[in-house]
Structures are given as structure tokens and as C-alpha cells.
């Protein structure tokens, strides 16, 4: 049997809006993935540490506070510092279109904005992980 | 029984007269465009219906307040138009406030940034990337002085969305008012101060529930004596709804939280009528128009019942559920954002039909960023159009007697009571929060809602139907990246300017006060802010003594 995809869903920074993060965690579970949710107010080092400890295939970041430009790249950096830059990072939340290319340049694989279907997200992750493992 | 009706009607007339001395009706006679006169309210014609009317509705301004808390509602005064604003620095926000007041807004509402809301100074490592983003950064009294510069605090009422550090920001507000020559007995406004919904839905908690409840009762007690016109709490369903709850859950969990605060205050030795008149509520208005209007009416009836029957309140003011409404942020779409103006108008209308005391209308671009000045103005104009052009404010509770609305009001009430019973069986709201019960219920509802959107059982215009190819978000408000650096400098300079010995001394006194659960910490916090101790310094003292909450 194929191993389950493991996902870490994390809320970097001080933002307390976790409706989206929780809904996505639940939806990915319904798509057969194992999902670990960090809870609120995680620092970049904590998130990177959790990703490694939990041996996840992908990290999903959620932010609605406008802090994404500072916070998302830091997680990528912290993963790199720990030699774990093979774990792809994706993000979502309230993120203006014009910030997306900046975040992609900083190593975030993809940004999903408001209105994305959870099935679309699940398919993307499946493609991303299978693609990289082959 | 017909007597009851007639007596109540007479009482209503007398009350109307009395109220009009202070708040005369907006017009001598109200007429519509056909020149037909509009009565202050309309009643069931048949005597056979009077008993049921008295039991379920009552006259406006009378128990159980289903039709509204004042006898004439908006015939005298419109609701307070209160737009939540705040971003970046105190100076910028002060400019936005003065702009909004110039545009006819009638009250202020302050949004604080996340570090302020969680009790971190702008130069704290935890604050990095978040300074000034979702609201204004306030570190020391100096920032508060700038924020409120040239705003007359004896005339303007101010609502502050602040919870865990509510005591600190209220003390800063008192201190600025005193500097303006306005005594604290005269200031008006609201602090949100509702920590339970932070654990449930909003996330800006600091301390564990028990010491948090103590801080809240300390504020109740202090304000009952010293700041009698300030609303000491705004018990909020707004964020519970935004987190995904249903309308019924919004009311049920909010009122359950309200009961927990009442219980805590009574336990600390206060009498219910000492603090209950200063309790305020804050609800959401979503898209299902009649459900929302019915929800507000049901909430008022349940609260009146609770306060009278369960808590034995005698002061009429304790029985009245006064509330602020904000339209539903989570109903807005990033796609075709101008459509949001229409959603907001419908939601705002439901709040007015439901008898709200004040209203914030969201801006069309809030699914994307903080609102631009233009978007904020359209949002305010939406309220002004409802107030001045639609005529809906010319008669009290116009939906009363609608078979549909009355039935929905009753059904919502029943569902809320069964939640309240369940929560009581669990040991009350504090226990239910600690067990994660409400969080799970809300999350389940949020997930179901998402599935309905993805399966198109629910159509969201522009999102899952009627889509267009569009260029996304052209003109958004951007918070200057330089701001965080400036604010860090500002707080560091503020610390250098002050008399450190005085600060150390008062912070030590605060620590001792915090250690003793019988002591009210408010006077110590007030002296601390006057000495220019920062939000972070004060909250860190309390963190040391109270500990930090880490989740259910």
C-alpha cells in the first residue's frame, strides 16, 4: 500500500484566524492524508522543527494578518538551516496577488488564495509529492 | 388579560413621551412618498392575539424587549455608525479617525495590531512582521496621546477591540482623557474585554481562563465606581460566527459566555444590577436576511429572560441586551469585490431590522486587505443610505408579526436554549471552552459550510458561479514596511525619556497586587501607564504571575 502523505499545517506569527487552517486540515484528512496542525502563534524555528520531527512531506502555512511577507520566507529559511529544504512549503490566506511572485522567489512553492477549492489543493499536494518522489 | 395589553400600551406611551424630552423624534410627522403617515409602531389588531403578543414580544422598550430596547427606536436617533479602523502608526490612524468624523461618522472604533492585542511591545521578537498590520500599534501612553489627538473625548464615544490587555488600554484612555480635562466619570465607549471568545474563536488570549476572568471582574468593579458610563465588556458572537458557527451557535455561545461573566462577577461579590447595565454585546450579520433579523430579536428575548428569571436583576437596564453589529467579513469574496457592497447592504439592513444600537459596515476590499479610504467611505455611505433614504428606520421593528419572522425567532430561541442547557450541564461556558466543546462545534459547522460551497449546494456569486476572468486587486491599502522600524524606535525612545525609577517602583507594586487574588489591579495599571510603562511591560508582569494559556 502507498504510504500516506504527511502534511504539517501551521499558523506562523500572531494571527488567530484558524478557520481556514482547520478546514483545510480536515479536508486533507478526508483525502487520505495525515495532517498535523501546529496550533496558533508558531515561530518559524518551531514550525521547521515540527516539520522535521513529524517527518512531513509538505508544509502548509496560513496567514490572514498581512504578515506573510516577513513570516513565510523565514520558514523556508529555517528549513534550509536544518538541511530540510527538500520539504516543500506552500501557503494561503489573505494574500494580495502582487505578493505572490515575491513569495515564490523566496522559495514558497505555491500560494493558494481565498476561494480555492480544497479538492484542488489536495490534488496539487498529491501531484507535488508523487512528482518529487518518482 | 386584555388589560395587560392596554396597561402596557399606556406605559409605552408615557415612556415615549419621557424619552422624547431628551431625544425628540427626527421628524414632526413621518410620511412615506405617497404622503401616508407612518406610526411609531404597528400592533396586532385582534384582541385574541394580545396575550401571545404580550408574552412573546411586548411593547418596544418593554420586557422581553423582542421589539427593541427603546420605545421609539430609530424614530428618535439612528443607530451609531461606527466604523472599525486602525492601521500603521497612531498618527495615521488619528488622521483616518478625523476623516471619518468629518464624513459624519458618530463614534470611533479602534483596531489594534496583533502585538498590542497579545501584549507585546513593537520591539519584542514575537512582534516581528506584525507591527501595525491589522491595526494600530500602541506601546506606551505616548502613542495613545497621538492616536486621540484633537478628538474631544467628552463628545466622542470610543470602542476599543482589545481583550487580554483591555485593562491596560482602558487605563491609557482614561489617562489621555484626564490630560484633555475630561474626568473619567464622563468618558463613554466600550472595551471588548471578552476573553472567552478569544479561546473559542479569535485567538488573542494571553493568560489562562481563571486569572483572565479575575481581570475582567476587576474591570467591572473598578468601572462601576469610577468609569460609570463606559461599557466594560462587549460579549462577542461576531468572531464565533466568523470562525464558522451557525447563527444559532453564535447566539448560544455568546449568551453562555455572558452568563459566565455574570457568574464570575457575582462570585466576586458584585450585585447583578451593579454591573449588568454596562454589559454590551456584539453580533455578526450574514447573508440570510430573515434569519439574521430573527436572530437579533431572539437574542434580546433570551437575555432579558435570563437576567430576570435566573439572576433576579431588577434594574431594567440589566435586562436590555444592547448590541453592536458588524457585517460578515467571511461572507465577502476576493472575486469581483464590488459585489461585496451589495452583500454588506443586505447584511446591514438585517441588523437594522433587528434593532442594533451601532453598526460597522465592512468595506468591499476586506477579503484582500485593509480597506482603502474610498472603500471605507462607500461602506459608511451604505449605512447612511439605509438610514436616510430607505425609510426602514421610520417605524419600530417593522418585521414584527410576520408569520415567518416570528416563527424563526421562536425556533432560534428554542435551539439556543437547548445549547444553553447542554453547556450548563457541562459546568458552564468556562468549562466548555476548556474542554474545547464550542471550538469543535464551530469547526464542524465551518467544514460543512465549505463542503456545501464546493458541491455548489450553496451558490456564492462570483466565487463558485457567475465567475469572470478578472485582474485581481489593483488598488489595495499597503502598510508601509518602514513603519515597524519607526515604531520600534519610538518605543525605545519612550523608554529612555521616562523616569525609570518611578516605572520600576509602580511595576513592582503591580506585581504584588497581581499576587493577591483579592486585590483589584486596576489602580496599579492606571498608575503604570501614567508613568509611561508599556503594554508589553505591564502584560509581562502579569504573564509572570498568571502564566500563559497554550490552547485547549
Automatic annotation (TrEMBL), chain A:
Cofactor(s) needed, names only, are:
adenosylcob(III)alamin
Alphabetical UniProt keywords: Cobalamin, Cobalt, Isomerase, Metal-binding
- One Pfam family from the UniProt entry? B12-binding
Organism domain of life: Bacteria
Q: Which InterPro entries match?
A: Acid_CoA_mut_C, Cobalamin-bd, Cobalamin-bd_sf
Q: Which GO terms describe its molecular function?
A: cobalamin binding; isomerase activity; metal ion binding
Q: Where is the B12-binding domain?
A: 4-134
Classification via PANTHER family: METHYLMALONYL-COA MUTASE, LARGE SUBUNIT, METHYLMALONYL-COA MUTASE, MITOCHONDRIAL-RELATED
Q: What is this protein called?
A: Methylmalonyl-CoA mutase, C-terminal domain
Whose protein is this, by species? Tenuibacillus multivorans
TrEMBL record, chain B:
Give yes or no: UniProt keyword Isomerase.
yes
Name the source's superkingdom: Bacteria
Q: Which UniProt keywords apply?
A: Isomerase
**CDD domains, from UniProt?**
MM_CoA_mutase_ICM_like
Name of the protein this chain belongs to: Methylmalonyl-CoA mutase, N-terminal domain
* Pfam entry (one): MM_CoA_mutase
The scientific name of the source species is Tenuibacillus multivorans
NCBIfam families cross-referenced by the UniProt entry: acid_CoA_mut_N
Instruction: Give every Methylmalonyl-CoA mutase alpha/beta chain catalytic domain span.
Output: 33-548
The family database entries (InterPro entries) matched by this protein are listed as: Cbl-dep_enz_cat (IPR016176), MeMalonylCoA_mutase_a/b_cat (IPR006099), MMCoA_mutase_a_cat (IPR006098)
Q: What would you give as a GO molecular function for this chain, any one?
A: cobalamin binding
Amino acid at each position: 500500500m502507498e504510504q500516506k502523505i504527511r502534511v504539517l499545517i501551521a499558523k506562523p506569527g500572531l494571527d488567530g484566524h484558524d478557520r481556514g487552517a482547520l478546514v483545510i486540515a480536515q479536508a486533507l484528512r478526508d483525502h487520505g492524508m495525515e495532517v498535523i496542525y501546529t496550533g496558533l502563534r508558531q515561530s518559524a524555528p518551531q514550525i521547521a522543527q515540527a516539520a522535521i520531527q513529524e517527518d512531513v512531506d509538505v508544509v502548509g502555512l496560513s496567514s490572514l494578518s498581512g504578515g506573510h511577507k516577513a513570516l513565510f520566507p523565514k520558514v523556508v529559511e529555517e528549513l534550509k538551516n536544518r538541511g530540510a529544504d527538500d520539504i516543500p512549503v506552500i501557503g494561503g490566506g489573505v494574500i494580495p496577488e502582487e505578493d505572490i511572485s515575491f513569495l515564490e522567489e523566496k522559495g514558497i512553492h505555491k500560494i493558494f488564495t481565498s476561494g480555492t477549492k480544497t479538492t484542488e489543493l489536495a490534488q496539487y499536494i498529491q501531484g507535488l509529492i508523487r512528482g518529487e518522489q518518482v | 388579560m386584555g388589560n395587560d395589553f392596554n396597561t402596557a400600551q399606556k406605559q409605552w406611551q408615557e415612556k415615549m413621551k419621557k424619552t422624547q424630552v431628551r431625544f425628540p423624534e427626527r421628524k414632526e410627522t413621518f410620511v412615506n412618498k405617497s404622503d401616508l403617515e407612518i406610526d411609531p409602531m404597528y400592533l396586532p389588531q385582534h384582541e385574541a392575539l394580545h396575550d401571545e403578543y404580550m408574552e412573546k414580544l411586548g411593547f418596544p422598550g418593554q420586557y422581553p424587549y423582542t421589539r427593541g430596547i427603546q420605545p421609539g427606536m430609530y424614530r428618535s436617533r439612528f443607530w451609531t455608525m461606527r466604523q472599525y479602523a486602525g492601521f500603521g502608526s497612531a498618527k495615521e490612524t488619528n488622521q483616518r479617525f478625523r476623516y471619518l468624523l468629518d464624513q459624519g461618522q458618530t463614534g470611533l472604533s479602534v483596531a489594534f495590531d496583533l502585538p498590542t492585542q497579545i501584549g507585546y511591545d513593537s520591539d519584542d521578537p514575537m512582534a516581528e512582521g506584525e507591527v501595525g498590520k491589522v491595526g494600530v500599534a500602541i506601546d506606551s501612553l505616548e502613542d495613545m496621546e497621538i492616536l486621540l489627538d484633537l478628538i474631544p473625548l467628552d463628545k466622542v464615544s470610543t470602542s476599543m477591540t482589545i481583550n487580554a490587555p483591555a485593562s491596560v488600554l482602558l487605563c491609557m484612555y482614561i489617562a489621555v482623557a484626564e490630560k484633555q480635562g475630561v474626568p473619567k466619570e464622563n468618558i463613554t465607549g466600550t472595551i471588548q474585554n471578552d476573553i472567552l471568545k478569544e479561546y473559542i474563536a479569535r485567538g488573542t488570549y494571553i493568560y489562562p481562563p481563571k486569572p483572565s476572568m479575575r481581570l475582567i471582574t476587576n474591570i467591572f468593579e473598578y468601572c462601576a465606581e469610577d468609569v460609570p458610563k463606559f461599557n466594560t465588556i462587549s460579549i462577542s458572537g461576531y468572531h464565533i460566527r466568523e470562525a464558522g458557527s451557525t447563527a444559532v451557535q453564535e447566539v448560544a455561545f455568546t449568551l453562555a459566555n455572558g452568563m459566565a461573566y455574570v457568574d464570575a462577577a457575582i462570585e466576586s461579590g458584585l450585585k447583578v444590577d451593579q454591573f449588568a447595565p454596562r454589559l454590551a454585546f456584539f453580533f455578526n450579520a450574514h447573508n440570510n436576511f430573515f434569519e439574521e433579523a430573527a436572530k437579533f430579536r431572539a437574542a434580546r428575548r433570551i437575555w432579558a429572560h435570563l437576567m430576570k428569571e435566573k439572576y433576579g436583576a431588577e434594574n431594567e437596564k440589566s435586562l436590555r441586551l444592547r448590541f453592536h453589529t458588524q457585517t460578515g467579513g467571511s461572507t465577502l469574496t476576493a472575486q469581483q469585490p464590488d459585489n461585496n457592497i451589495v452583500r454588506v447592504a443586505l447584511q446591514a439592513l438585517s441588523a437594522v431590522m433587528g434593532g442594533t444600537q451601532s453598526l460597522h459596515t465592512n468595506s468591499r476590499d476586506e477579503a484582500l486587505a485593509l480597506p482603502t479610504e474610498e472603500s471605507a467611505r462607500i461602506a459608511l455611505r451604505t449605512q447612511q443610505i439605509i438610514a436616510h433614504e430607505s425609510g426602514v428606520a421610520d417605524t419600530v421593528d417593522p418585521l414584527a408579526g410576520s408569520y415567518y419572522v416570528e416563527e424563526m425567532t421562536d425556533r432560534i430561541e428554542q435551539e439556543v436554549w437547548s445549547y444553553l442547557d447542554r453547556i450548563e450541564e457541562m459546568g458552564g461556558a468556562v468549562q466548555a471552552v476548556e474542554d474545547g466543546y464550542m471550538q469543535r462545534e464551530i469547526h464542524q459547522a465551518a467544514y460543512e459550510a465549505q463542503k456545501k460551497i464546493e458541491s455548489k449546494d450553496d451558490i456564492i456569486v462570483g466565487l463558485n458561479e457567475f465567475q469572470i476572468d478578472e485582474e485581481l486587486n489593483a488598488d489595495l491599502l499597503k502598510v508601509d514596511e518602514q513603519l515597524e522600524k519607526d515604531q520600534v524606535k519610538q518605543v525605545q525612545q519612550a523608554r529612555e525619556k521616562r523616569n525609570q525609577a518611578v516605572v520600576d517602583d509602580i511595576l513592582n507594586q503591580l506585581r504584588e497586587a497581581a499576587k493577591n487574588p483579592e486585590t483589584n489591579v486596576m489602580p496599579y495599571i492606571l498608575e503604570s501607564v501614567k508613568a509611561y510603562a508599556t503594554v508589553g511591560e505591564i502584560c509581562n508582569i502579569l504573564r509572570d504571575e498568571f502564566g500563559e494559556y497554550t490552547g485547549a
